[in-house]
Amino acid sequence: MADIDIGYGADTLPGSGLPAAWTLIDCNNAANDTGNLDTFYIHEPANCTGVKIGTFSGSGATYTYRDHVLIGDVPGGSKQEFGGLVCDVVTGDFVAFLNGTGDARSSTTGGAGIAYYSGDRFSAGTYADYTFVANYWMPIYGTGVTPGWQGTIRVGSAEIANPAAVRLGTQELTAVEISKIVVGKGEI
Asked: Mind listing the pLDDT tens digit for each residue in 9-25?
């Protein structure tokens, strides 16, 4: 399985503040593959509440929501890791952030830019009223995995596309195990 990553990174804490309750899309390091993000890293100076992190696609002033997870409270002052998540991502998506309260941070130099909207856009829709500012980046980063095997299993007249797992009698095969069989990389 290939690793997916998205976002500028969360190791450094930049100095410029951004308002709470804004949808902030970090247009740095678009997702390099399709699958699920399972871990997010956030580095904010002060405590944040009501944090949502998700994925959006688009450019300029137009972005489309894909998926998000509710992180909730994020302690400030150091890089925080949130794992065990499931957030859909498609190649080319950007990571997005929203906090109900607290001080979101960005840097005004060295990045590809961010797009923002004053309000919560973490729900279905495409909107063409974001403001894009060049050179910005945010201390947010996500990682995940691509599905193991992709294809269609046919049994009689039934078809199952891209199954996460298949049960054969009492044996359940995960997508990773199916991938090993299909490409001959191992035994289960």
From this structure: 998 878 778 889 999 99
> Is residue 165 in some structural domain?
yes
Q: Is there a contact between 39 and 89 (Cβ–Cβ < 8 Å)? A: no
Residue 64: domain span: 3-145
- Tell me the pLDDT band of 146, cut-offs 50, 70 and 90: confident
Contact 26, 140 (CB under 8 A): yes
pTM exceeds 0.70: yes
Q: Are residues 15 and 108 in the same domain?
A: yes
Tokens of 150: 């992709």
| 80 within domain boundaries | yes
**DSSP state string for 62-87:** EEEEEEEEEEEEE-SSSEEEE-S--E
Instruction: With respect to residue 40, please indicate whether it lies within any of the assigned structural domains.
Output: yes
Left (φ > 0), alpha (ψ -120 to 50) or beta: where does 179 sit? alpha
Please, are residues 145 and 153 in contact by the beta-carbon 8 Å criterion?
no
Q: How many domains does the chain have?
A: 2
3-state helix, strand, coil in the chain (%, to 5): 5, 50, 45
User: pLDDT tens digit string along 93-136?
Assistant: 999 999 999 888 899 999 999 999 999 999 989 999 999 999 99
Give CA–CA dist 32/3, Å, rounded: 8
CA distance 155 to 122: 39
